Amino acid sequence: MESPMKKRRSSRSGSASGPRSGGDTDRRIKKSKKQAPAAQRGSPDGACRGLKRKSGCIEVAAQFGRKKNLDQYYSIGEELGCGKFGSVRICYSKLTGEHFACKALLKDTGEENTAHIEVEIMQHLSGHPGVVTLKEVFDDTEKFYIIMELCSGGRLSDFLVKERARFCERNAAEVVKELMGIVKYCHEMGVVHRDIKPENILLTESGRMKLADFGLATRLSDGQKLSGFFGSPAYVSPEVLTGYYNEKTDIWGVGVLLHFLLLGYLPFGGASREAIFEAVKTIELDFHGAAWQSVSLPARDLLSRMLTHDVSARLSANEVLGHPWFTTYADCSASGDSAAKCTNLQITNNIPRGAPVVLPVGRWSHDSSQESHDRDSSQESHDGAECEYINALTAAVARIEISEPKRSRICGPVPTPTGLGLKTNLCTAF
Ligand SMILES: Nc1ncnc2c1ncn2[C@@H]1O[C@H](COP(=O)(O)OP(=O)(O)OP(=O)(O)O)[C@@H](O)[C@H]1O
Prior knowledge:
The protein is α+β, with helices and mostly antiparallel strands. It has 13 helices and 12 strands. The strands form 4 sheets. It has a 5-stranded antiparallel sheet. The chain has a 3-stranded antiparallel sheet with strand order 7-9-10. It has a two-stranded antiparallel sheet with strand order 1-12.
């Protein structure tokens, strides 16, 4: 797994533009129902303007109700992780004994308003099971302390590195389905995350995913465009590098993750940041090469629609979730035949960055113990039938009508997405 690359926090004041100010990009971005205006990152007064006034929305005037005397309420424990601007530690409520995570952000970094917006967006999204829940905020003369839900399962990136395990398509579909449900919720709430990557996806003890680190997130109203560089090089979308963008930049990030899950390596690599950017901007992925032969056609079709440079053609979160690839594996599970339909991908250790993984072409097995390349004739005929099924699905995929997302704003939690099929593995992995 690629090590996380530094974000340009100093350029967080990227702008949001109205629909009329943008040239070509405007024509590619269809307008939809009006939504809240994006936060003005340079203006604390504007930070809550237009934001849906759901219960608990933080009023900037109230400085998100931050409290003093952290020590009075919490004991701070060991470090869970370290970001560019501070560390995150486990903490214990002195009142209830509950465990939380405490993110400390230094005040003298000029990031004070960013901290406000991060907190505000977390609060805005609170209530969804896929978003790290904000508990409360403290400050003292030097730091802000964000008390949030503890995700003791660690980061998805660490899980992927540790496991180095087989990621069959069914498991990949479960991961992406759950993540996309969270992204869909964010977009419906008018929030673009802008830094979707496995380092920012945390896992609970029970293996559920939680999107975290809203430090680069922003709000976006329908038809608005964003500009400015945000994100991590390997996951950044081409439009972020070349001009204006919208919430579809998050779809690209999930697409990069899906590519990793399916093939075991990231699609855009390079020896330097510039080289990665060049790859992101110029490489058109070919889903027909040898590496893809053991990946189903619906999976390839979906990925090609997530990693297309044409933003207007790129699927929305809702459209991704409606893709037949997910139906395939939902149906498999329902029939109790899911394991048989898993294409096991062997993600071997020490894969050089950007190097292709040699996949076990045509191997279908029930579990990792059945790795034999010898398949009996009944299995062959089973595969043949499955191929027909998959090809029929692909034909259906080709007829999918692309529609703009409904930007209805959901005030409460949306239904919990299906849990990770890897739940057990995740629990034991940490
Ligand atoms: N709620 C949480 N529960 C458990 N661990 C957490 C939690 N939030 C953050 N962490 C850990 O702390 C690390 C840093 O957190 P986070 O990414 O929010 O900080 P950051 O300063 O924004 O980082 P970056 O430099 O990537 O922007 C995470 O990678 C994760 O390991």
